[in-house]
């Protein structure tokens, strides 16, 4: 009796989405090759940093919020495989300052999805969130779950897991062209081909496909790692991550966890940019991010910047996740600045799309369009 041939998949891009897709396909018996243009892991991938937020606050998209329990369960399975739990479940909060603001809408999405959350009244802020400047805050919207996925450790763990299972991982092999119909790619070291191709090349997608050139753009985002001053340091003990501090400036970040300093994000400071030439963070980036936090956290005017990082993500229309089938290829960008948290689930989604109906999977990955500007996190 002859054994049926294993189906083969070639994955372009070793960020969280390419690696999680590789893992899922290995678990389903596929023969997998991953080709990455840089080193493995690649510090220039959108997925590379100490941590990424996972949170179920989703103001304009109850559809995505509703997927969070599934996303968390997918991470749990992945962590069991890795035999490690690179995740700090510190919880997440956002602040409301005006009726109808982002946090008010996130609260409505919680009500719609029935996901666990609680509301902290303004008079309780100083005990529950002692690092917050309470002036002008109506209430805080908190979840006990969510927090910081330790992304660099997850990426490294996945690379080792895949290596140990015989997956071919080709580093420093940039794909130059893609033939979607035949699932074949060209690289400077020759062509590669498989039964199916998944292109998860992040900000490299526009160079490979006209649709991504027309419809998406790379966004530059700078985050500042900083230390709070000594007199407010204790206020940060056990603090949750945040996804919005009220107002229109889209402030998000992660408290000091896993030996890393505070991480400060500032959505309004993101802009379209060139990933090839604008990777160096500038003093202006640091100053702009720190200035945005004045009067938001206690002692913010005395935060000491430790390191500023500039990176890029791929922004799609309506900040949605994109899965497009063409010939024997799936084009994948589950990003728009908020895709890491879904990574383990995206791997399952893509494998389902390969084995079933890509249109139906693409629809469930989109959730409902986000109604408000939300740059990252
Ligand atoms: C600063 C910042 C903060 C963020 N914060 C959060 C957050 O808190 N929570 C959250 O959920 N999400 C967050 N995101 C978004 C999240 O990081 C991304 O959605 C996710 O990492 C995208 O993963 P990816 O695998 O699609 O892309 P990437 O991680 O960019 O991986 C793509 C890979 O493809 C490779 N590649 C590109 N072109 C080619 C080519 N031609 N040939 C071969 N390989 C190629 C690249 O080198 C790269 O390694 C943030 C993003 C940034 C930049």
UniProtKB/TrEMBL annotation:
Name the keywords, alphabetized: FAD, Flavoprotein, Oxidoreductase
Query: Is Flavoprotein a UniProt keyword of this protein?
Result: yes
Which residue ranges does UniProt annotate as crossing the membrane?
none
Which cofactors are reported in the record for this sequence?
FAD
Task: Report the Pfam families cross-referenced here.
Answer: DAO (PF01266)
Q: Name one GO molecular function term.
A: flavin adenine dinucleotide binding
Give start and end of each FAD dependent oxidoreductase domain.
Answer: 10-352
Oxidoreductase keyword on record: yes
Question: What is the official name of this protein in its record?
Answer: FAD-binding oxidoreductase
